[in-house]
Design brief:
Radius of gyration: 18 Å
Number of strands: 9
Order of helices and strands: EHEHHHHHEEHEEHHEHEHEH
Structural class: alpha/beta
Shape: globular
Number of helices: 12
């Protein structure tokens, strides 16, 4: 039985999914809570891991069964399934003989299993993913053409995975320029938008180990501040719901061993948040996202 916390939307409903490495598991719990309440997307926007989750959703029915299937996949993932360690590849990358330190083969294999379409035009639910032109420094929204190359480009963490050559451009992770492509949904005229942020590991006791861990954690902290600013710029006529990321959270963005735990925590938290929404609210932003933009001074 589904529940609805808000009246049916007038016009299309958009889901915007942030990047965030292994913390993308929290989006799965958010999706379970949304679908359980009969809230489904008419269009999807994603960057990095948000693009990979969006790709899974885009060719499947917008139902609780789909969210539960994605939860089972995430619960079985381990770091080696996405970031396989190869001393030779890492050494060649550090010596400047390769443009990456992690092979994309396993990520490609994972996405090939997730994608049920060859081109972005074939998706049952329209999917737009964001990538970054490495040479021009431009943010690109990819909405047509080969789906696998588009999602790989959006998730190509610079220096970790190799850039993706697509349409004469050299593309890397969309999180570099826009980790939460909220503005694309607004510009397209979507008037009810649900943002599924990953947040970041806000309670680590020690710095992540390894170059990949430090790079992903640093990027997560950086892009969180961009999202806070983007939320503040959303026009009042847009109905905006930002689901709460998990905090405290002590999971590194490259640690995939705690997916099931993050999914369940996020499902419960998101359900409580959605059930508490005001029926006529315009901008619903959790307190943790409002606090994220405040400055703190060391003593």
């Amino acid at each position: 039985m589904t529940r609805s916390s808000r009246p049916p939307a007038e016009g299309p409903v958009g889901f915007v999914l942030s990047g965030g490495g292994s913390i993308g598991a929290v989006q799965v719990g958010m999706l379970q809570a949304l679908y359980e309440r009969g809230i489904a997307p008419d269009v999807l926007y994603g960057a990095s891991v948000g693009a990979t989750n969006g790709a899974f959703l885009a060719s499947r029915p917008a139902t609780s069964d789909t969210a539960d299937e994605l939860a089972r996949v995430w619960s079985g993932l381990r770091t080696r399934d996405v970031f396989p360690v190869s001393p030779l590849t890492g050494l060649l990358g550090l010596l400047g003989l390769r443009d990456h330190v992690v092979s994309p083969r396993r990520l490609r294999r994972l996405l090939e299993a997730w994608l049920q379409f060859e081109t972005l035009e074939q998706t049952a639910t329209p999917l737009h993913v964001v990538a970054t032109d490495l040479l021009r420094g431009e943010e690109l929204r990819l909405s047509t053409g080969n789906a696998l190359s588009a999602v790989l480009a959006s998730a190509a963490l610079p220096g970790v995975f190799p850039p993706v050559r697509r349409g004469g451009r050299v593309l890397v992770d969309g999180g570099v320029t826009n980790n939460t492509p909220l503005c694309h949904a607004v510009d397209a005229g979507v008037r009810r938008i649900y943002v599924l942020p990953t947040g970041y590991a806000c309670s680590l006791e020690d710095a992540p180990r390894g170059a990949v861990g430090v790079a992903t954690q640093s990027l997560s902290v950086l892009v969180q501040q961009r999202l806070v600013l983007d939320i503040q710029r959303v026009p009042e006529e847009v109905e905006l719901v930002v689901l709460p990321p998990l905090c405290p959270l002590d999971v590194s963005p490259v640690d995939f061993s705690r997916g099931a735990e993050m999914i369940e925590r996020s499902r419960r938290q998101s359900g409580e948040f959605l059930d508490g929404l005001a029926p006529d609210g315009r901008h619903e932003v959790p307190d943790i996202m409002r606090r994220a933009g405040h400055h703190h001074h060391a003593r």
